[in-house]
Structures are given as structure tokens and as C-alpha cells.
Protein: VWDE protein
Organism: Herpetotheres cachinnans
Amino acid sequence: KLTSLALQPVITPELVQGHVHLKCSYSRPSPKPPLQYSVVWSRLSTPGKKEQIQHDTTLESFSSMEMNGVNLRLGDTVFCTVTAFMRDTPEQQSLPEESKGFYAGIKFLPESLQIAEDGKEHVLTVLSTVPIACPGHDDSCKITLQLSTQDLGKNSQLLGPPNIALSACQVDLLQAPCSESSCAAAVLTVTAVTDFAQDGNRVSHIRAEPVGWRDLLWRAYTPQDVKVTVRDLPTGNCYSFTDPHIITFDGWRYDNYKIGTFLLCRSVSRVFEVHVRQWDCGGHRSATACNCGVAAR
């Protein structure tokens, strides 16, 4: 055996003549004696299990592989394992060294969210770990992602009204130089819908689907969903009923028998207020007013 050579293989994405390639680069020891390199490409087929997809023998300090959508697809986690050996005595080999797994495709950061029904906006970054190619001659170097939400109940059944709101229904990932595992990125915000219902904590999913893409690599690809857990928060209630009896948010009770339009509620922290209109209800013994209209902003 050769001693450990610290080859330290690393996978990086690159664009070669308009096609996405992955490149496995490794450190090259001193040129003497001359070495050859065996590079085995593999991907995760099931959790914890890898399948070999290519085997190269080269004198170079790198090996490349095209992402053609067939043997190497978007959504794959890819590894390269490098072994050096003597050209004259190939049985003398170094210990094989494996790269870290490279995820090729669309990623969301963070990968999951835990938010509450408090009106706060949470930033979600969408990025591509591989370069965006320009198809044809229209120079549209971007991927358009259609965003949608799904709300799931306790038994993973679809529920009624939306539980989260997105700041955009579509985002464009524009071509940019690759750096720090991102070759294109976009940002949006996620907010929990304040639904005034005590419906417990609920799980929603954000889905992104590439649209209008002719390239085989992107056409058959759907990124992994983002799981969003929404924590239910209690909401206040106030009432105005019958002739009208009023119960405030803190439980205080009083009556308002007058005719006219009144400000029932106004928030001091956001644009929210409710007006009520009261008319004569035709009480026989004393003046009685009833709610006949409401306006909310």
C-alpha cells in the first residue's frame, strides 16, 4: 500500500458548453513517482446505500461527469472516491478517499420552518446548487419556480383554508457565478395565517415546481417540499349582541342602547378597526337599539 496521500476530493459544479457537469478535484502529491488515479462516481440510491454510476482512470487531478438527466439527475446526492496507484506497479494503491456528498438541485434554507400565528414574516431562500444553462438563443438564463402550499391535518389529509401565506407565487432563479454552494438564489417570505380558530398546531408544505422548461434535466424534476409547522396561538374575542350587550376583550361588560355608528374596536399596533351601526329596534317600554351593520378594516 501507498501511504495516505491526503487527496481530499471535492465535488464542484460547472457549466461546460451549455451543459451542467460535476467536477471531482483532488490534491496531487509530488510528481515523483508519477501516479494514476481511479475515480469512482456514485450516488445515494436509498438512504445509506450507494450505487456506482461511473469509473474513470486518469492522469489528471480531476474527473468530470455530465448531468444528463439519465444516469445523473437533479435531486441526486453524489460522491466521488479517489484512489492513487503507481503506473508501473498498479497493485501499490493508496487508501481510497471519499468526497462529501454533493446535493445537485434546488435547496430551501432553512429546510424546515417552525412559525407561529403572530404575523411575523420568515425569510426563505431558494437556491440552485448547479449552474443555470441558457437554452437556445433567447438568453433566458433562469429557472422559474411555481410555488404552492398544501395544508395537512393529523392524518396527512388536506384541510380547508390556507394555513400559511407566501410573498410570491413564482420566483426566478437567475444565472450567477457559483459560490458557496449556490449558483442562483431567490428570497421570499412566509407568514402564518392568523385564522382566529383554535385548531391546534398544523403542518403545511411549500412546493416548488419548475415551469416552462424544455430541458430534460429540469423537466422531470420536482424539488423536495419545505415542511412548515404552524403553532396555534389563542386569539382574543369581543362581542356585541342583542340590544346591544358588549363584552370586551378583557371580559368587561356594558350596554349601548344608542342609535348611530360607533367605533367598536381599534388596534393600536396595526391597521385594524371595526365599526358598528345601531338602529332603533322598536322597544315598547324603553329605547332599544340593535346592530344592523358592520364594517371592518
Summary: The first strand starts at residue 10 and ends at 16. Residues 106-231 form a domain with the Immunoglobulin-like fold (CATH 2.60.40.10).
